[in-house]
Amino acid sequence: MRIDIITLFPQMFQGPLTESILQRAQDQHLLEIHYHDLRTFGIGKYHQVDDTPYGGGAGMVMRADVLVGAIETISANTAPTPSPSPVSGRGGKPHVIYFSPRGKKLRQPMVEKIVKKYEWLILVCGHYEGIDQRVIDGGWIDEEMSIGDYVLTGGELPAMVLIDALARQIPGVLGHSESAAEESFSAALDRKKEYPHYTKPAEFEGMKVPDVLVSGDHKKIAEWRKKQVR
Ligand code: ADE
Question: For residue 153, which atom of ligand 1 is closest to its CA?
Fold first, then answer.
């Protein structure tokens, strides 16, 4: 999967996307991330990207002409090369997602659908009071997405949350021991939350590991785990 990120703060992504599983996915070319500093699409000497809202009020609004310029320029780049596990009918045109508290709330089935359906995403990270509504109404945004009912300072953290959730569903990204098949919110667990986990020591601060887990009885363990799902 190829992901192009439009942001005023490309540096924010260093760390969360350059460690552990997400870095490994990029090393293996299962995930390809491109950063685009919106400022480079800005207008005039000062590369202006925002302006005051019509109708007055606090804050600034990101300009439609600047954002559309960025989306169209990036979309005109060549489509991504198919990943090692190509799925037909994808690629060609990017699916454009804009993050805002007004968007549809992200849930695990949406994550799985995006991975199955799209080979190429553009993520638009808004700031200030948001973006000019005409970018959305004019059809440049395919999906407006929220990661929860609270307000963040911008779309960068939501973009990182989405990328992390997407990456672990891309075939080959997780190792066998990290499998996503029977984890919380998976179809295999009826979209419910996973059972609790324990490891050594067998007793900690007076608390023992449930007897069934040390019984060696795999059938009973499976039954116990099934009951713990909620
Ligand atoms: N931008 C600001 N808050 C947000 C949220 N909760 N989800 C997505 N984008 C946002």
Answer: 2
CB count in 10 Å sphere of residue 177? 5
Residues 28 and 84 placed together within one structural domain of the fold: yes
Minimum CA distance residue for ligand 1 atom 5: 101
Ligand 1: residues with CB < 6 A are: 99-101, 146-148, 150-152, 155, 158
* 41 and 88 housed in the same domain: yes
Same domain, 55 and 32: yes
Residue 90 falls inside a structural domain: yes
Q: Is residue 172 part of a domain?
A: no
* Ligand 1: centre distance to CA 103 (Å): 8
pLDDT values of the chain reduced to their tens digit, one per residue, 230 residues: 999 999 999 999 999 999 999 999 999 999 999 999 999 999 999 999 999 999 999 999 999 999 999 999 999 986 665 554 443 345 589 999 999 999 999 999 999 999 999 999 999 999 878 999 999 999 999 999 999 999 999 999 999 999 999 999 999 999 888 888 888 999 989 999 999 999 999 999 999 999 999 999 999 999 999 999 99
Give the predicted TM-score (pTM) of the model: 0.93
Domain of residue 33, residue span: 2-167
Work out whether the CA dihedral 106, 110, 112, 116 comes out positive or negative: negative
Burial bucket for residue 40 (CB in 10 Å: 0-12, 13-18, 19+): exposed
Structure tokens at 116: 């199955």
For ligand 1, the distance from its centroid to the CA atom of residue 53, given in whole angstroms, is 19
Distance 145 CA to ligand 1 centre (A): 8
